[in-house]
Predict the structure.
Amino acid sequence: MNSLRRSPMMSVLPIVLTLGAVALLLPACGRSGGGSSTTIQVRGSDTMVNVAQAWAEEYAKAQPAVGVEVSGGGSGVGIAALERGTIDIANASRNMKSEEVEQARKNTGLEPREFIVGYDALAVFVHIDNPLSEITIEQLADVFAEDGKAVRWSDLGVSIPGVSDDTIVRISRQSSSGTYEFFREHVLGTKDFKLGSRDMNGSKEVVELVGNTRTAIGYSGMGYATGAVKMLKIARAAGEPAFEPSVANTISKAYPLARSLQVYTLGEPQGAVKGYIDWILSNAGQRILEENGYVPVNPGGSGA
Amino acid sequence: MERRPTRSTLALLGERVIETLIKVSGVSAVIFVVAIFFFIFREAAPVLWSDDFHILEFLFSTEWYPTSVSNVRYGTLALTVGTLSVTAVAILLAIPFGLGAAIFVSEFCSPKLKETLKIVIELLAAIPSVVWGFVGLTVMSKVIVTLTGTAVGVNLLNGGVILALMSVPIIVSIGEDALRAVPDSYREAAVALGATRWQTVYRVLLPAAKNGLLAAVLLGVGRAVGETMAVLMATGHAVQIPHGLLDSVRTLTANVAAELGEAPAGSSHYRVLFLTGVLLFWITMVVNLAADFAVRGIRRK
Protein backbone atom coordinates (compact mmCIF):
# COMPACT_ATOMS: atom_id res chain seq x y z
CA MET A 1 0.00 0.00 0.00
CA ASN A 2 2.87 2.33 0.65
CA SER A 3 3.64 2.45 -3.02
CA LEU A 4 0.44 4.45 -3.50
CA ARG A 5 1.93 7.38 -1.67
CA ARG A 6 2.71 10.02 -4.20
CA SER A 7 3.12 13.68 -3.82
CA PRO A 8 -0.28 15.24 -4.42
CA MET A 9 1.44 18.14 -6.13
CA MET A 10 2.55 15.80 -8.89
CA SER A 11 -0.99 14.79 -9.71
CA VAL A 12 -2.45 18.29 -9.49
CA LEU A 13 0.30 19.82 -11.54
CA PRO A 14 -0.88 18.77 -15.00
CA ILE A 15 -4.38 20.07 -14.34
CA VAL A 16 -3.06 23.39 -13.10
CA LEU A 17 -0.79 23.65 -16.11
CA THR A 18 -3.62 22.88 -18.50
CA LEU A 19 -5.91 25.44 -16.92
CA GLY A 20 -3.11 27.99 -17.03
CA ALA A 21 -2.47 27.31 -20.69
CA VAL A 22 -6.18 27.68 -21.50
CA ALA A 23 -6.31 30.95 -19.58
CA LEU A 24 -3.32 32.22 -21.52
CA LEU A 25 -4.83 31.23 -24.85
CA LEU A 26 -8.24 32.78 -24.29
CA PRO A 27 -7.36 36.45 -24.77
CA ALA A 28 -5.58 35.55 -28.01
CA CYS A 29 -8.93 34.53 -29.48
CA GLY A 30 -10.25 38.08 -29.23
CA ARG A 31 -10.23 40.56 -32.08
CA SER A 32 -6.89 41.64 -33.38
CA GLY A 33 -6.19 45.25 -33.99
CA GLY A 34 -5.03 46.27 -30.56
CA GLY A 35 -1.39 45.88 -31.58
CA SER A 36 0.95 48.33 -33.17
CA SER A 37 -0.42 47.87 -36.69
CA THR A 38 -4.05 48.53 -37.62
CA THR A 39 -6.27 45.83 -39.05
CA ILE A 40 -9.32 46.62 -41.15
CA GLN A 41 -12.01 43.94 -40.98
CA VAL A 42 -13.95 43.51 -44.24
CA ARG A 43 -16.82 41.08 -44.76
CA GLY A 44 -19.69 40.51 -47.14
CA SER A 45 -20.51 39.88 -50.77
CA ASP A 46 -19.21 36.67 -52.33
CA THR A 47 -19.37 38.40 -55.69
CA MET A 48 -16.83 40.94 -54.45
CA VAL A 49 -14.67 38.61 -52.37
CA ASN A 50 -12.12 38.01 -55.13
CA VAL A 51 -11.64 41.67 -55.89
CA ALA A 52 -11.65 42.52 -52.19
CA GLN A 53 -8.85 39.98 -51.64
CA ALA A 54 -6.91 41.46 -54.54
CA TRP A 55 -7.34 44.93 -53.05
CA ALA A 56 -6.20 43.72 -49.64
CA GLU A 57 -3.07 42.09 -51.09
CA GLU A 58 -2.15 45.10 -53.17
CA TYR A 59 -2.85 47.49 -50.31
CA ALA A 60 -0.52 45.49 -48.07
CA LYS A 61 2.27 46.43 -50.48
CA ALA A 62 1.30 50.09 -50.60
CA GLN A 63 0.60 50.44 -46.85
CA PRO A 64 2.44 47.71 -44.92
CA ALA A 65 1.32 49.16 -41.58
CA VAL A 66 -2.35 48.51 -42.36
CA GLY A 67 -3.60 44.95 -42.58
CA VAL A 68 -6.87 44.18 -44.32
CA GLU A 69 -8.73 40.97 -43.44
CA VAL A 70 -11.35 39.93 -45.97
CA SER A 71 -14.02 37.26 -45.66
CA GLY A 72 -17.10 36.41 -47.70
CA GLY A 73 -20.40 34.87 -46.67
CA GLY A 74 -22.74 37.02 -48.72
CA SER A 75 -23.85 40.63 -48.72
CA GLY A 76 -26.43 39.86 -46.02
CA VAL A 77 -23.73 38.41 -43.76
CA GLY A 78 -21.55 41.50 -44.19
CA ILE A 79 -24.41 43.88 -43.55
CA ALA A 80 -25.55 41.89 -40.49
CA ALA A 81 -21.99 42.11 -39.12
CA LEU A 82 -21.86 45.84 -39.79
CA GLU A 83 -25.16 46.29 -37.93
CA ARG A 84 -23.56 44.63 -34.91
CA GLY A 85 -20.49 46.81 -35.32
CA THR A 86 -18.11 43.84 -35.47
CA ILE A 87 -16.46 44.83 -38.75
CA ASP A 88 -15.16 48.03 -40.30
CA ILE A 89 -16.33 47.63 -43.88
CA ALA A 90 -19.20 45.61 -45.39
CA ASN A 91 -19.05 44.66 -49.06
CA ALA A 92 -22.45 44.42 -50.72
CA SER A 93 -23.59 43.63 -54.22
CA ARG A 94 -27.03 45.02 -53.34
CA ASN A 95 -28.12 48.16 -51.54
CA MET A 96 -28.74 48.16 -47.81
CA LYS A 97 -32.45 47.91 -47.05
CA SER A 98 -34.09 50.63 -44.99
CA GLU A 99 -34.75 48.26 -42.08
CA GLU A 100 -31.09 47.26 -42.11
CA VAL A 101 -30.05 50.91 -41.95
CA GLU A 102 -32.52 51.36 -39.11
CA GLN A 103 -31.11 48.34 -37.26
CA ALA A 104 -27.54 49.62 -37.62
CA ARG A 105 -28.60 53.03 -36.31
CA LYS A 106 -30.34 51.42 -33.36
CA ASN A 107 -27.43 49.12 -32.45
CA THR A 108 -24.51 51.47 -32.91
CA GLY A 109 -25.94 54.98 -33.05
CA LEU A 110 -24.09 55.57 -36.30
CA GLU A 111 -25.41 56.21 -39.78
CA PRO A 112 -24.21 53.66 -42.41
CA ARG A 113 -22.35 55.39 -45.22
CA GLU A 114 -22.39 53.98 -48.76
CA PHE A 115 -19.60 54.14 -51.36
CA ILE A 116 -20.14 52.81 -54.87
CA VAL A 117 -16.84 51.17 -55.82
CA GLY A 118 -17.70 49.65 -59.18
CA TYR A 119 -20.29 48.10 -61.44
CA ASP A 120 -21.03 44.52 -62.38
CA ALA A 121 -23.25 42.73 -64.80
CA LEU A 122 -25.09 39.74 -63.39
CA ALA A 123 -24.61 37.18 -66.14
CA VAL A 124 -26.88 34.22 -66.86
CA PHE A 125 -24.73 31.19 -67.64
CA VAL A 126 -25.50 28.00 -69.56
CA HIS A 127 -23.22 25.13 -70.62
CA ILE A 128 -21.05 25.89 -73.65
CA ASP A 129 -22.85 23.16 -75.68
CA ASN A 130 -26.27 24.70 -75.06
CA PRO A 131 -27.52 26.11 -78.41
CA LEU A 132 -29.46 28.91 -76.67
CA SER A 133 -27.86 32.32 -77.08
CA GLU A 134 -30.40 34.78 -75.74
CA ILE A 135 -33.23 34.80 -73.23
CA THR A 136 -35.85 37.28 -72.03
CA ILE A 137 -36.44 38.31 -68.43
CA GLU A 138 -39.88 36.72 -68.70
CA GLN A 139 -38.41 33.36 -69.74
CA LEU A 140 -35.92 33.57 -66.87
CA ALA A 141 -38.82 34.09 -64.48
CA ASP A 142 -40.56 31.10 -66.05
CA VAL A 143 -37.51 28.99 -65.26
CA PHE A 144 -36.73 30.29 -61.78
CA ALA A 145 -39.99 31.54 -60.21
CA GLU A 146 -42.24 29.51 -57.94
CA ASP A 147 -45.11 29.25 -60.43
CA GLY A 148 -42.92 29.31 -63.55
CA LYS A 149 -43.90 26.89 -66.27
CA ALA A 150 -40.54 26.11 -67.87
CA VAL A 151 -39.33 22.81 -66.42
CA ARG A 152 -37.63 21.27 -69.46
CA TRP A 153 -35.42 22.88 -72.05
CA SER A 154 -38.00 21.88 -74.66
CA ASP A 155 -40.44 24.24 -72.90
CA LEU A 156 -38.11 27.03 -74.04
CA GLY A 157 -37.81 25.52 -77.52
CA VAL A 158 -34.25 24.39 -76.96
CA SER A 159 -32.90 20.91 -77.62
CA ILE A 160 -29.55 20.16 -76.04
CA PRO A 161 -27.42 17.70 -78.01
CA GLY A 162 -26.43 14.45 -76.33
CA VAL A 163 -28.75 14.40 -73.31
CA SER A 164 -31.71 12.10 -72.73
CA ASP A 165 -33.30 13.97 -69.82
CA ASP A 166 -33.62 17.66 -70.62
CA THR A 167 -34.98 18.77 -67.23
CA ILE A 168 -33.58 22.22 -66.53
CA VAL A 169 -31.07 22.04 -63.68
CA ARG A 170 -31.53 25.37 -61.90
CA ILE A 171 -28.50 26.68 -60.08
CA SER A 172 -29.10 29.45 -57.62
CA ARG A 173 -27.41 31.06 -54.61
CA GLN A 174 -27.93 30.77 -50.89
CA SER A 175 -30.34 33.36 -49.54
CA SER A 176 -27.66 35.45 -47.80
CA SER A 177 -26.19 36.31 -51.19
CA GLY A 178 -26.64 39.79 -52.63
CA THR A 179 -26.62 38.19 -56.05
CA TYR A 180 -29.64 36.10 -54.99
CA GLU A 181 -31.49 39.20 -53.79
CA PHE A 182 -30.61 41.17 -56.89
CA PHE A 183 -31.73 38.39 -59.21
CA ARG A 184 -35.01 37.98 -57.33
CA GLU A 185 -35.71 41.68 -57.37
CA HIS A 186 -34.90 42.21 -61.04
CA VAL A 187 -36.11 38.94 -62.56
CA LEU A 188 -38.78 37.53 -60.26
CA GLY A 189 -40.15 40.80 -58.87
CA THR A 190 -42.05 39.90 -55.72
CA LYS A 191 -42.32 36.21 -56.58
CA ASP A 192 -40.28 33.51 -54.88
CA PHE A 193 -37.79 31.08 -56.29
CA LYS A 194 -39.00 27.64 -57.31
CA LEU A 195 -37.86 25.20 -54.63
CA GLY A 196 -35.42 22.48 -55.60
CA SER A 197 -32.76 24.67 -57.14
CA ARG A 198 -29.18 23.84 -56.19
CA ASP A 199 -28.18 26.73 -53.98
CA MET A 200 -24.44 27.26 -54.19
CA ASN A 201 -22.39 29.09 -51.58
CA GLY A 202 -20.26 31.10 -53.96
CA SER A 203 -20.19 32.86 -57.30
CA LYS A 204 -17.49 30.56 -58.59
CA GLU A 205 -19.30 27.36 -57.61
CA VAL A 206 -22.30 28.38 -59.72
CA VAL A 207 -20.18 28.80 -62.83
CA GLU A 208 -18.24 25.60 -62.12
CA LEU A 209 -21.40 23.50 -61.75
CA VAL A 210 -22.92 25.02 -64.90
CA GLY A 211 -19.68 24.18 -66.72
CA ASN A 212 -19.99 20.54 -65.58
CA THR A 213 -23.70 20.16 -66.33
CA ARG A 214 -25.05 20.31 -69.86
CA THR A 215 -28.64 20.97 -68.80
CA ALA A 216 -27.87 23.65 -66.22
CA ILE A 217 -28.66 27.35 -66.05
CA GLY A 218 -27.36 29.66 -63.35
CA TYR A 219 -26.54 33.27 -62.57
CA SER A 220 -23.36 34.86 -61.27
CA GLY A 221 -21.11 37.88 -61.71
CA MET A 222 -19.73 38.19 -65.23
CA GLY A 223 -16.21 38.27 -63.80
CA TYR A 224 -16.50 34.54 -63.07
CA ALA A 225 -17.01 33.41 -66.69
CA THR A 226 -14.87 30.46 -67.83
CA GLY A 227 -14.34 28.60 -71.10
CA ALA A 228 -16.84 25.89 -70.14
CA VAL A 229 -19.83 28.21 -69.96
CA LYS A 230 -21.66 30.69 -72.15
CA MET A 231 -23.16 34.02 -71.05
CA LEU A 232 -26.63 34.59 -72.51
CA LYS A 233 -27.73 37.85 -74.06
CA ILE A 234 -30.72 39.19 -72.18
CA ALA A 235 -33.74 41.08 -73.51
CA ARG A 236 -36.14 43.02 -71.29
CA ALA A 237 -39.12 41.49 -73.09
CA ALA A 238 -39.90 39.32 -76.10
CA GLY A 239 -39.33 41.28 -79.32
CA GLU A 240 -36.94 43.75 -77.73
CA PRO A 241 -33.23 43.62 -78.53
CA ALA A 242 -31.07 41.40 -76.35
CA PHE A 243 -27.81 42.73 -74.91
CA GLU A 244 -24.72 40.84 -73.88
CA PRO A 245 -23.14 41.50 -70.50
CA SER A 246 -20.23 43.73 -71.50
CA VAL A 247 -18.49 46.75 -70.02
CA ALA A 248 -20.16 49.09 -72.50
CA ASN A 249 -23.64 47.66 -71.95
CA THR A 250 -23.17 47.78 -68.20
CA ILE A 251 -22.24 51.46 -68.24
CA SER A 252 -25.05 52.40 -70.60
CA LYS A 253 -27.45 50.26 -68.48
CA ALA A 254 -28.66 48.68 -71.74
CA TYR A 255 -27.98 45.27 -70.17
CA PRO A 256 -30.99 44.57 -67.91
CA LEU A 257 -29.06 42.97 -65.03
CA ALA A 258 -26.38 45.62 -64.47
CA ARG A 259 -25.81 46.59 -60.84
CA SER A 260 -23.54 48.64 -58.65
CA LEU A 261 -21.11 47.22 -56.11
CA GLN A 262 -20.75 49.09 -52.86
CA VAL A 263 -18.95 49.16 -49.57
CA TYR A 264 -20.56 50.37 -46.34
CA THR A 265 -19.02 51.85 -43.23
CA LEU A 266 -20.57 52.96 -39.96
CA GLY A 267 -20.49 56.72 -39.93
CA GLU A 268 -18.01 58.79 -41.93
CA PRO A 269 -14.88 56.65 -42.32
CA GLN A 270 -11.85 57.76 -40.29
CA GLY A 271 -8.13 57.15 -40.39
CA ALA A 272 -7.03 53.85 -41.87
CA VAL A 273 -10.50 52.93 -43.14
CA LYS A 274 -10.83 56.26 -44.93
CA GLY A 275 -7.38 55.81 -46.44
CA TYR A 276 -8.32 52.36 -47.66
CA ILE A 277 -11.59 53.41 -49.30
CA ASP A 278 -9.90 56.40 -50.91
CA TRP A 279 -7.31 54.02 -52.30
CA ILE A 280 -10.01 51.63 -53.63
CA LEU A 281 -11.54 54.55 -55.52
CA SER A 282 -8.14 55.71 -56.82
CA ASN A 283 -6.67 54.64 -60.14
CA ALA A 284 -4.71 51.81 -58.50
CA GLY A 285 -7.77 50.33 -56.79
CA GLN A 286 -10.01 50.71 -59.81
CA ARG A 287 -7.45 49.06 -62.08
CA ILE A 288 -7.55 45.97 -59.84
CA LEU A 289 -11.35 46.01 -60.02
CA GLU A 290 -11.15 46.08 -63.81
CA GLU A 291 -8.61 43.22 -63.85
CA ASN A 292 -11.12 41.13 -61.87
CA GLY A 293 -13.74 41.52 -64.57
CA TYR A 294 -15.81 44.39 -63.19
CA VAL A 295 -16.51 47.86 -64.47
CA PRO A 296 -14.77 50.81 -62.75
CA VAL A 297 -16.80 53.66 -61.27
CA ASN A 298 -15.31 56.15 -63.65
CA PRO A 299 -14.42 54.11 -66.75
CA GLY A 300 -11.77 55.61 -68.99
CA GLY A 301 -11.48 58.53 -66.61
CA SER A 302 -8.85 59.33 -64.05
CA GLY A 303 -10.67 57.67 -61.15
CA ALA A 304 -12.04 59.46 -58.12
CA MET B 1 -2.49 -5.63 10.93
CA GLU B 2 -1.07 -3.27 8.37
CA ARG B 3 -0.44 0.21 9.61
CA ARG B 4 -2.37 2.86 7.65
CA PRO B 5 0.02 5.11 5.79
CA THR B 6 0.16 8.56 7.30
CA ARG B 7 -0.43 11.50 5.00
CA SER B 8 0.48 15.13 5.17
CA THR B 9 -2.27 17.75 5.22
CA LEU B 10 -1.16 18.81 1.75
CA ALA B 11 -1.75 15.32 0.44
CA LEU B 12 -5.22 15.19 1.98
CA LEU B 13 -6.06 18.60 0.59
CA GLY B 14 -4.83 17.55 -2.84
CA GLU B 15 -6.96 14.48 -2.71
CA ARG B 16 -10.02 16.48 -1.82
CA VAL B 17 -9.38 18.98 -4.64
CA ILE B 18 -9.05 16.20 -7.17
CA GLU B 19 -12.16 14.48 -5.88
CA THR B 20 -14.14 17.71 -6.25
CA LEU B 21 -12.74 18.27 -9.73
CA ILE B 22 -13.77 14.81 -10.84
CA LYS B 23 -17.22 15.26 -9.34
CA VAL B 24 -17.61 18.61 -11.11
CA SER B 25 -16.56 17.13 -14.44
CA GLY B 26 -19.09 14.36 -13.99
CA VAL B 27 -21.96 16.70 -13.20
CA SER B 28 -20.86 19.25 -15.80
CA ALA B 29 -21.96 17.01 -18.68
CA VAL B 30 -25.52 17.17 -17.40
CA ILE B 31 -25.27 20.91 -16.78
CA PHE B 32 -23.94 21.49 -20.29
CA VAL B 33 -26.72 19.53 -21.97
CA VAL B 34 -29.40 21.35 -19.99
CA ALA B 35 -27.73 24.73 -20.57
CA ILE B 36 -27.34 24.17 -24.31
CA PHE B 37 -30.96 23.17 -24.63
CA PHE B 38 -32.05 26.10 -22.51
CA PHE B 39 -30.10 28.72 -24.49
CA ILE B 40 -31.11 27.38 -27.88
CA PHE B 41 -34.72 27.17 -26.83
CA ARG B 42 -34.64 30.64 -25.32
CA GLU B 43 -33.50 32.09 -28.66
CA ALA B 44 -36.18 30.13 -30.49
CA ALA B 45 -39.12 30.45 -28.13
CA PRO B 46 -40.54 33.91 -28.98
CA VAL B 47 -41.32 32.83 -32.55
CA LEU B 48 -43.62 30.08 -31.29
CA TRP B 49 -46.20 32.71 -30.32
CA SER B 50 -45.73 35.05 -33.27
CA ASP B 51 -48.39 35.42 -35.94
CA ASP B 52 -46.37 34.46 -38.99
CA PHE B 53 -45.36 31.11 -37.52
CA HIS B 54 -47.36 27.89 -37.25
CA ILE B 55 -45.84 24.84 -35.65
CA LEU B 56 -47.67 22.48 -38.01
CA GLU B 57 -46.35 24.39 -41.01
CA PHE B 58 -42.86 24.28 -39.48
CA LEU B 59 -42.97 20.51 -39.08
CA PHE B 60 -45.02 19.35 -42.05
CA SER B 61 -44.67 21.85 -44.89
CA THR B 62 -41.99 21.50 -47.51
CA GLU B 63 -42.04 25.20 -48.38
CA TRP B 64 -38.96 26.90 -47.00
CA TYR B 65 -39.11 30.59 -47.97
CA PRO B 66 -37.47 32.43 -45.07
CA THR B 67 -36.62 35.60 -46.99
CA SER B 68 -39.63 35.88 -49.29
CA VAL B 69 -40.84 39.44 -49.86
CA SER B 70 -44.44 38.44 -50.48
CA ASN B 71 -45.15 35.33 -48.41
CA VAL B 72 -42.72 34.08 -45.77
CA ARG B 73 -43.06 30.36 -45.07
CA TYR B 74 -41.01 28.29 -42.65
CA GLY B 75 -41.59 24.64 -43.57
CA THR B 76 -38.79 22.26 -42.68
CA LEU B 77 -40.20 18.92 -43.79
CA ALA B 78 -37.97 18.77 -46.86
CA LEU B 79 -34.94 19.53 -44.69
CA THR B 80 -35.86 16.91 -42.09
CA VAL B 81 -36.40 14.34 -44.81
CA GLY B 82 -33.06 15.45 -46.29
CA THR B 83 -31.27 14.83 -43.00
CA LEU B 84 -32.96 11.48 -42.42
CA SER B 85 -32.43 10.23 -45.97
CA VAL B 86 -28.73 11.16 -46.10
CA THR B 87 -28.24 9.53 -42.70
CA ALA B 88 -30.11 6.39 -43.80
CA VAL B 89 -28.00 6.02 -46.95
CA ALA B 90 -24.83 6.60 -44.95
CA ILE B 91 -25.73 4.06 -42.28
CA LEU B 92 -26.82 1.41 -44.80
CA LEU B 93 -23.41 1.74 -46.42
CA ALA B 94 -21.41 2.15 -43.22
CA ILE B 95 -22.77 -0.73 -41.10
CA PRO B 96 -21.66 -3.64 -43.29
CA PHE B 97 -18.29 -2.08 -44.04
CA GLY B 98 -17.73 -0.83 -40.50
CA LEU B 99 -18.70 -4.01 -38.68
CA GLY B 100 -17.02 -6.16 -41.33
CA ALA B 101 -13.79 -4.25 -40.92
CA ALA B 102 -14.07 -4.39 -37.11
CA ILE B 103 -14.50 -8.18 -37.20
CA PHE B 104 -11.63 -8.57 -39.64
CA VAL B 105 -9.25 -6.38 -37.66
CA SER B 106 -10.17 -7.97 -34.36
CA GLU B 107 -10.42 -11.65 -35.30
CA PHE B 108 -8.95 -12.52 -38.65
CA CYS B 109 -5.87 -10.53 -39.52
CA SER B 110 -2.28 -11.00 -38.42
CA PRO B 111 -0.96 -8.79 -35.59
CA LYS B 112 1.31 -6.89 -37.97
CA LEU B 113 -1.46 -6.08 -40.45
CA LYS B 114 -3.69 -5.22 -37.52
CA GLU B 115 -1.34 -2.49 -36.29
CA THR B 116 -1.07 -0.97 -39.78
CA LEU B 117 -4.82 -1.12 -40.37
CA LYS B 118 -5.60 0.49 -37.02
CA ILE B 119 -3.24 3.37 -37.70
CA VAL B 120 -4.69 3.93 -41.17
CA ILE B 121 -8.29 3.74 -39.90
CA GLU B 122 -7.57 6.20 -37.10
CA LEU B 123 -5.98 8.50 -39.66
CA LEU B 124 -9.20 8.26 -41.70
CA ALA B 125 -11.16 9.40 -38.64
CA ALA B 126 -8.91 12.42 -38.29
CA ILE B 127 -9.63 13.89 -41.73
CA PRO B 128 -11.53 17.17 -41.22
CA SER B 129 -15.08 17.23 -42.52
CA VAL B 130 -14.42 20.13 -44.88
CA VAL B 131 -11.84 17.97 -46.64
CA TRP B 132 -14.44 15.25 -47.04
CA GLY B 133 -16.69 17.95 -48.47
CA PHE B 134 -14.04 18.75 -51.07
CA VAL B 135 -13.77 15.07 -51.96
CA GLY B 136 -17.53 14.94 -52.43
CA LEU B 137 -17.68 18.13 -54.46
CA THR B 138 -14.79 17.34 -56.79
CA VAL B 139 -13.95 13.62 -56.91
CA MET B 140 -17.14 11.83 -55.89
CA SER B 141 -19.45 14.03 -57.96
CA LYS B 142 -17.46 13.25 -61.13
CA VAL B 143 -17.45 9.52 -60.32
CA ILE B 144 -21.23 9.58 -59.81
CA VAL B 145 -21.83 11.47 -63.06
CA THR B 146 -19.63 9.03 -64.98
CA LEU B 147 -21.18 5.90 -63.45
CA THR B 148 -24.85 6.88 -63.51
CA GLY B 149 -25.06 9.42 -66.30
CA THR B 150 -27.03 11.78 -64.08
CA ALA B 151 -26.83 15.53 -64.70
CA VAL B 152 -25.52 16.70 -61.34
CA GLY B 153 -23.10 14.75 -59.15
CA VAL B 154 -23.80 16.55 -55.87
CA ASN B 155 -26.79 14.67 -54.47
CA LEU B 156 -28.19 12.32 -51.85
CA LEU B 157 -25.95 9.43 -52.92
CA ASN B 158 -22.84 11.61 -52.82
CA GLY B 159 -23.66 12.94 -49.34
CA GLY B 160 -24.49 9.43 -48.14
CA VAL B 161 -21.22 7.95 -49.43
CA ILE B 162 -19.16 10.77 -47.91
CA LEU B 163 -20.93 10.43 -44.56
CA ALA B 164 -20.48 6.66 -44.67
CA LEU B 165 -16.75 7.16 -45.24
CA MET B 166 -16.73 9.48 -42.24
CA SER B 167 -18.63 7.14 -39.92
CA VAL B 168 -16.87 3.89 -40.88
CA PRO B 169 -13.66 4.68 -38.94
CA ILE B 170 -15.71 5.41 -35.81
CA ILE B 171 -17.68 2.19 -36.16
CA VAL B 172 -14.50 0.21 -36.80
CA SER B 173 -12.49 1.50 -33.89
CA ILE B 174 -15.28 1.31 -31.31
CA GLY B 175 -16.58 -1.99 -32.73
CA GLU B 176 -13.10 -3.45 -32.58
CA ASP B 177 -12.78 -2.40 -28.94
CA ALA B 178 -16.10 -4.09 -28.20
CA LEU B 179 -15.00 -7.36 -29.83
CA ARG B 180 -11.64 -7.25 -28.08
CA ALA B 181 -13.45 -6.87 -24.75
CA VAL B 182 -15.00 -10.31 -25.20
CA PRO B 183 -12.93 -12.60 -22.93
CA ASP B 184 -10.62 -15.02 -24.70
CA SER B 185 -12.18 -17.86 -22.74
CA TYR B 186 -15.26 -17.50 -25.01
CA ARG B 187 -13.10 -18.00 -28.09
CA GLU B 188 -11.29 -20.90 -26.48
CA ALA B 189 -14.58 -22.51 -25.51
CA ALA B 190 -15.91 -22.11 -29.05
CA VAL B 191 -12.77 -23.63 -30.55
CA ALA B 192 -12.89 -26.46 -28.02
CA LEU B 193 -16.43 -27.24 -29.15
CA GLY B 194 -15.18 -27.52 -32.70
CA ALA B 195 -16.61 -24.26 -34.06
CA THR B 196 -15.03 -22.83 -37.19
CA ARG B 197 -13.74 -19.28 -37.04
CA TRP B 198 -16.81 -17.98 -38.78
CA GLN B 199 -19.10 -19.84 -36.41
CA THR B 200 -17.15 -18.43 -33.49
CA VAL B 201 -17.68 -14.94 -34.83
CA TYR B 202 -21.37 -14.99 -35.52
CA ARG B 203 -22.57 -17.44 -32.83
CA VAL B 204 -20.33 -16.37 -29.97
CA LEU B 205 -18.56 -13.04 -30.45
CA LEU B 206 -21.30 -11.00 -32.09
CA PRO B 207 -23.92 -11.83 -29.42
CA ALA B 208 -21.38 -11.27 -26.67
CA ALA B 209 -20.31 -7.88 -28.02
CA LYS B 210 -23.82 -6.73 -29.01
CA ASN B 211 -23.95 -3.69 -26.72
CA GLY B 212 -20.60 -2.35 -27.77
CA LEU B 213 -21.33 -2.91 -31.44
CA LEU B 214 -24.65 -1.11 -31.12
CA ALA B 215 -22.90 1.78 -29.41
CA ALA B 216 -20.39 1.86 -32.28
CA VAL B 217 -23.16 2.04 -34.88
CA LEU B 218 -25.01 4.71 -32.92
CA LEU B 219 -21.98 6.93 -32.58
CA GLY B 220 -21.63 6.55 -36.33
CA VAL B 221 -25.29 7.59 -36.76
CA GLY B 222 -24.69 10.52 -34.43
CA ARG B 223 -21.84 11.72 -36.56
CA ALA B 224 -23.95 11.39 -39.70
CA VAL B 225 -26.96 13.27 -38.29
CA GLY B 226 -24.89 16.14 -36.95
CA GLU B 227 -22.40 16.48 -39.78
CA THR B 228 -22.68 19.85 -41.50
CA MET B 229 -19.80 20.98 -43.62
CA ALA B 230 -19.37 17.84 -45.70
CA VAL B 231 -23.07 17.48 -46.48
CA LEU B 232 -23.35 21.19 -47.21
CA MET B 233 -20.81 20.71 -49.97
CA ALA B 234 -21.75 17.25 -51.21
CA THR B 235 -25.55 17.14 -51.28
CA GLY B 236 -26.29 19.96 -53.71
CA HIS B 237 -28.21 22.06 -51.20
CA ALA B 238 -31.64 21.91 -52.85
CA VAL B 239 -34.87 22.19 -50.84
CA GLN B 240 -36.93 19.24 -52.06
CA ILE B 241 -38.12 15.82 -50.99
CA PRO B 242 -35.82 13.40 -52.80
CA HIS B 243 -37.47 10.84 -55.07
CA GLY B 244 -34.32 8.88 -55.73
CA LEU B 245 -30.70 8.50 -54.79
CA LEU B 246 -29.67 10.97 -57.47
CA ASP B 247 -31.78 13.92 -56.31
CA SER B 248 -30.12 16.82 -54.53
CA VAL B 249 -31.22 17.47 -50.95
CA ARG B 250 -30.59 19.94 -48.17
CA THR B 251 -30.14 18.91 -44.55
CA LEU B 252 -31.22 20.74 -41.37
CA THR B 253 -27.63 21.30 -40.32
CA ALA B 254 -26.46 22.61 -43.68
CA ASN B 255 -29.44 24.96 -43.79
CA VAL B 256 -28.58 26.46 -40.41
CA ALA B 257 -24.94 26.83 -41.41
CA ALA B 258 -25.80 28.54 -44.69
CA GLU B 259 -28.43 30.92 -43.33
CA LEU B 260 -27.68 31.81 -39.72
CA GLY B 261 -24.95 34.27 -40.65
CA GLU B 262 -27.27 36.54 -42.60
CA ALA B 263 -30.39 36.28 -40.45
CA PRO B 264 -30.67 39.52 -38.44
CA ALA B 265 -30.42 38.73 -34.73
CA GLY B 266 -33.88 38.58 -33.17
CA SER B 267 -35.80 38.27 -36.45
CA SER B 268 -38.30 35.48 -37.07
CA HIS B 269 -35.90 33.85 -39.53
CA TYR B 270 -33.17 33.82 -36.87
CA ARG B 271 -35.49 32.30 -34.29
CA VAL B 272 -36.80 29.68 -36.69
CA LEU B 273 -33.20 28.62 -37.38
CA PHE B 274 -32.71 28.17 -33.63
CA LEU B 275 -35.93 26.17 -33.57
CA THR B 276 -34.37 24.01 -36.26
CA GLY B 277 -31.56 23.45 -33.77
CA VAL B 278 -34.13 22.36 -31.18
CA LEU B 279 -35.62 19.99 -33.75
CA LEU B 280 -32.18 18.48 -34.42
CA PHE B 281 -31.67 18.15 -30.69
CA TRP B 282 -34.91 16.18 -30.42
CA ILE B 283 -34.00 13.95 -33.36
CA THR B 284 -30.67 12.99 -31.80
CA MET B 285 -32.31 12.56 -28.40
CA VAL B 286 -34.90 10.16 -29.84
CA VAL B 287 -32.11 8.21 -31.55
CA ASN B 288 -30.15 8.01 -28.29
CA LEU B 289 -33.16 7.03 -26.20
CA ALA B 290 -34.15 4.37 -28.72
CA ALA B 291 -30.61 3.05 -28.54
CA ASP B 292 -30.72 3.07 -24.77
CA PHE B 293 -33.92 1.03 -24.72
CA ALA B 294 -32.53 -1.32 -27.33
CA VAL B 295 -29.41 -1.90 -25.26
CA ARG B 296 -31.49 -2.52 -22.14
CA GLY B 297 -33.71 -4.93 -24.04
CA ILE B 298 -30.66 -6.84 -25.17
CA ARG B 299 -29.31 -6.91 -21.64
CA ARG B 300 -32.55 -8.34 -20.27
CA LYS B 301 -32.33 -11.21 -22.72
User: Anything to note?
Assistant: Chain B has two domains: 9-49, 79-300. The two ends of chain B are 45 Å apart (CA to CA).
